[in-house]
Amino acid sequence: MDTKELFQSMPGEDLVVLAEEVLEVAKARELAIPSLVGSVTVAETAAVEELPVPTESSETAAPERAPLSAESLLATFDTAYQTYSSLVDTSNAQRAEVKGRKKPEQLEATDANTVKADVEAILATPGVLEELQAEVDFFTRNPEVDSPEAGFDLVIVPEDLTATDEQAIAKNVQTKITTQYSPYIRSEAYNDKRTPAVTGKGYRVAFAPRHYNVPKGTANQQTNWMNAKNQATVATELQTATDGEALAQISNLGANGELNDPDTRFDRTYFKRFDQAPL
Question: Which residues of 29-48 are buried (b: 16+ CB within 10 A; e: fewer)?
């Protein structure tokens, strides 16, 4: 049995744990691993021991920090919209190069004023800021190992991206950041099997966490934790990030110069993460 066959024969949750251990060792040895970007599957739902959720009495006092506000999240709008426009342009450029008479339809970018008004309306929806703040408070009190400081980035992503679009975007992102870091889209076999709800607007808004926002555990444990978390919220929902969302946040981080430090680049971009999407 070769190595690939061995891995294919392993239970999904064991393979996830093994992959995490390999990444941790690679990080400690400062090895470049080309699998920092992409969604992870949370489709396995067999009954397992649930991840413990700390009670209020077991939490330490949260450090003093400014609360989230609509203004603070909107402050990142210009970067988020520039990234969105870049994703549209990159996708359209590769679609125009497709051989044959019938080329893929071009994506149409929504103007900045329309998107900004939509984001403002989302942030004004009762419960959205409160639920984002609750997550920041929880993971500030209970941070995952090596997690960046808890917070969110606004992400705007075109809808109807194809796998070919995403590969073109990944190549474009590479030209904007250090050659020591290579964004990589893993096989679709690793992706969440659920299809993100189509908004019909031509774009999707999400709040991408800067922090590790699901406790470490097996895929089954994390699925159960996410389901329990979503039952407690009314305005937002944890969803596995799509490749487009992952690449959009990496573009945002790169535009702000936050990928220049090799000591923090891994934890800022290791995308076993989940986005808070407005309901």
Answer: eeeeeebbbbbbbbeeeeeb
Contact 274, 236 (CB under 8 A): no
Q: Take residue 95 and report the two structure tokens written for it.
A: 């679609």
Element (H, E) at 272: none
Provide the H-helix boundaries in 142-242. 163-176, 219-231
Give the strands of the sheet with 274-278, arranged side by side: 152-158, 203-209, 274-278, 236-240
DSSP state of 11: -
Residues 6+ apart with CB under 8 A from 244: 87, 157, 158, 161, 165, 166, 169
Structure tokens at 8: 């294919």
Q: What is the pLDDT of residues 107-148, one digit of tens each?
A: 999 999 999 999 999 999 999 999 999 999 999 999 998 898
Q: What is the pLDDT of residues 164-219, one digit of tens each?
A: 998 898 888 877 776 666 666 666 665 666 566 678 899 999 999 989 988 888 87
